[in-house]
Amino acid sequence: MNDQTALITGASSGIGFELARCFARDDYRVVLVARHHDELQEAARLIHQEFQGVDVVLLPFDLSRPDTAERLYAATTQRGLTIDALVNDAGFGETGYFTDTAMQTELDMIQVNATSLVHLTKLYLRDMVERNSGRILQVGSIASFSPSPCQAVYAATKAFVLSFAEAVQHELKQQKSAVTMTILCPPPTATNFFHVAHAENTRAASHTVSARDVAEEGYDALMDGAARSLPTLGAKVNFFSSLLLPDSVLATLMNTQLHPVGK
Fold first, then answer.
1. Is 26 a member of any domain?
2. Where are the coiled-coil regions (predicted)?
């Protein structure tokens, strides 16, 4: 039996749930974090059904609250849990012109997608560096690589995650630490993202890949200590396009994918 523990935020559905499955398959204790306790219970039921005997810990926390990262860290510490793998998957988007979208929604988005991610990374990475052991997976997006009209704030948070992760990766190498950090940049994926982001009527929503496939590639990259995972050919094409095309062209291309069809 594996005696290691993985903490996954956004673990009740989508890529986060599929990543939790990957850890459970390899006999990690999995700590599932999401806002709604009933959804966490269903995720735990499915994991127990598939992987009997796996230890599943449920921690319902809302990462849009500024004090949540500290409270979550305290909760794992009080339970005596050493977090060997941290997955920062929690995140959401919103679709529409910036002048039309709700400010509080976007402030909450920045809190979840960027601020809480940094806060949790700070808390758990310090412990990992002290032990000289651990892995962190930061979930970005192909939106990390280009400006995205109609999802301006979401794409900006994911660009932040990319820049932050790459800088800390370099710092860990300079420190000669055995701790690794991997950034996963999925393409549009078949999750609840488009419903929550009010983006169901977009071209991007009609061309999605499997959350399980994305999670499997991201998990393998994490276990290999890779710097980055670009799951599927589409994600790789998008990344290389960002290297070749000016931002103005990329923004135009993203607008065609994210602007509601027929509007």
1. yes
2. none
Number of domains in the chain: 1
Enumerate residues 6+ apart whose C-beta is below 8 A from 126: none
Task: Calculate the CA 155 to chain-centre distance.
Answer: 13
**207-to-17, 89, 185, 236, 237 alpha-carbon distances in Å:** 21, 21, 16, 15, 14
* Residue 154 known to be catalytic: yes
In sequence order, the β-bridge partners of residue 56 are 30
Three-state DSSP at 92 gives: coil
138, 182 Cβ separation under 8 angstroms? yes
CB atoms inside a 10 Å sphere around CB 74: 11
What CATH number did the domain enclosing 143 receive?
A: 3.40.50.720
Terminal Cα-to-Cα distance of the chain (whole angstroms): 54
The percent helix, strand, coil of the chain (3-state, each to 5) is: 55, 15, 35
Tell me whether residue 263 is in a domain. no
Compute how many other C-beta atoms are within 10 angstroms of the C-beta atom of residue 213: 16
Q: What is the pLDDT of residues 193-250, one digit of tens each?
A: 888 988 888 888 878 889 999 999 999 999 999 999 998 877 787 777 777 778 888 7
pTM of whole model > 0.85?
A: yes
Q: Print the domain residue range for 53.
A: 5-258
